[in-house]
Design goal:
4 helices; mainly alpha; 191 residues; 84% helix
């Protein structure tokens, strides 16, 4: 009888220890799931921010193109003015050789500046066309943010499955994401 009682005490101690360890494992799994759900939300916010930033960058490129068009028009007017001064200086019999060379230099500088603006405009148009082809969804920052959302969703699914194996975590009051729910939103292009 004494041996049976000792065995019963040992069994109860083992059960209590196993229950305690199972409870700790359940708490760790629930905490891991909670953190994973937070990471999905953070990644989703990051994706939304990346989309907004990419849209702002596209708008900024369009505004830069408008500004460039105005600068090019101004450069053409400056060329006309410099050409008029050059012609007037060359037609003036009292103009010195130095005045003629200065007028020619001013004209050449305006032509050079207009050419530089033309080159800048071509580069800007190329960057704008590439950005337009990519669109918001294809921008580097949105692609990277989407990858982070997908990774966070995968981690959340894994944490959810781990937590589901521990029945004590079934009702902790923490929001549980359904696996794939946010991922489907991302694929549809919604936040």
């Amino acid at each position: 009888v004494r041996m049976a009682q000792d065995q019963l005490v040992n069994t109860r101690a083992q059960v209590a220890d196993q229950t305690r360890r199972a409870g700790l494992a359940a708490e760790r799994a629930a905490e891991q799931e909670r953190r994973a759900v937070e990471q999905v939300a953070d990644a989703q916010r990051g994706l939304n921010d990346a989309r907004a930033d990419a849209a702002r960058q596209l708008k900024a490129l369009a505004e830069q193109q408008e500004d460039m068009a105005l600068r090019q028009r101004g450069a053409l007017l400056s060329i006309e003015e410099a050409k008029t001064r050059l012609d007037e200086t060359n037609a003036d019999p009292r103009a010195t050789d130095l005045q003629r060379r200065q007028a020619l230099l001013a004209y050449d500088e305006q032509v050079e500046q207009a050419q530089d603006l033309k080159d800048e405009a071509a580069d800007l148009a190329s960057r704008k066309a590439a950005a337009d082809r990519q669109g918001v969804a294809g921008s580097q920052q949105v692609v990277e943010a989407t990858r982070r959302v997908v990774d966070a969703q995968r981690d959340a699914r894994e944490a959810h499955h781990l937590s589901a194996r521990h029945p004590r975590t079934a009702d902790r009051g923490w929001p549980r994401s359904r696996p794939g729910q946010t991922e489907r939103k991302v694929r549809r292009g919604r936040g």
